[in-house]
Design goal:
The structure is a single chain. This protein is mainly α and 245 residues long. It has 10 helices and no strands. Helix 2 (37-61) packs antiparallel against helix 10 (216-238), helix 3 (66-100) runs parallel beside helix 7 and helix 8 packs across helix 9 (177-201).
Length: 245
């Protein structure tokens, strides 16, 4: 289904004659904002600054309390996973809206987006304004975790970006072409697996319930990897260097 606004004959409501039904959800649901590409990147950069700020706390502790330091390091990994997840949600929504606004060419995945009948009927009846689509996309993608390689690959395919482009951007000629995507997958999944271990098992081994060892350099490497990935995606989307899927 192609979501061309010109194909929808929307009848504008006379707000003086029709009172919109109010609900508890309406009062607490924030308005979905269409952020620009630079703003999306800034959201990620701000999150990284907050995460890196915790290194100062570690310096103050100066190994006096190893348990507290390890707790901070683990929390940084969890927050880093969240920052990366949120970035890919925003960049996917950005790309989808670029196609909806007819700025980018539609991808096959975009054309296959499923919309429930009652939503389409509300649009055709004029009971939803032009913000209905971004609200739909925001709601649907907010339920999806975008941290693992496979989940991010699927999201990027939606907006016409292939993982080999991201891998090429990161590694260039330093890594053989056939190995670049493999490296990228390992990079993403290593972070995802450690984040999940901390978030779901408190970073403990199932065999003996002991905590997995963690080092500050591990966290710093994860942060740099996340920065590389986000920077590559940002530059590709900024130049609209996407491919039809």
């Amino acid at each position: 289904m192609s979501f061309k606004k010109r194909n929808l004959s929307l009848t504008k409501r006379d707000l003086n004659l029709t009172n919109r039904k109010q609900s508890i959800r309406d009062k607490v649901q924030p308005e979905v904002v269409k952020f620009g590409l630079e703003e999306i990147k800034q959201h990620f950069d701000n999150s990284i600054c907050d995460i890196e700020e915790q290194f100062k706390t570690i310096e103050v502790l100066q190994s006096k309390d190893r348990a507290k330091i390890d707790y901070i390091l683990r929390s940084q990994i969890v927050f880093l996973g969240g920052a990366l997840d949120f970035y890919f949600h925003e960049i996917t929504q950005f790309g989808i809206m670029q196609m909806y606004d007819e700025i980018w060419a539609e991808t096959k995945a975009y054309k296959n987006i499923t919309v429930k009948l009652h939503i389409i009927l509300d649009v055709l009846k004029g009971e939803k304004d032009d913000s209905w689509f971004i609200e739909l996309i925001n709601y649907e993608y907010s339920k999806i975790s975008l941290i693992s390689y496979d989940s991010i690959e699927k999201a990027m395919n939606m907006i016409g970006l292939h993982m080999y482009q991201i891998a090429n951007k990161i590694y260039g000629e330093e890594v053989p072409k056939k190995d670049r995507v493999i490296r990228l997958r390992e990079k993403m999944n290593t972070l995802c697996e450690r984040r999940n271990s901390i978030a779901h098992q408190f970073d403990m081994f199932h065999e003996n319930a002991e905590k997995k060892p963690i080092h500050i350099n591990t966290v710093k490497e994860f942060i740099e990897s996340a920065k590389e990935i986000v920077d590559a995606v940002y530059e590709l989307v900024l130049r609209h260097d996407v491919v039809e899927k």
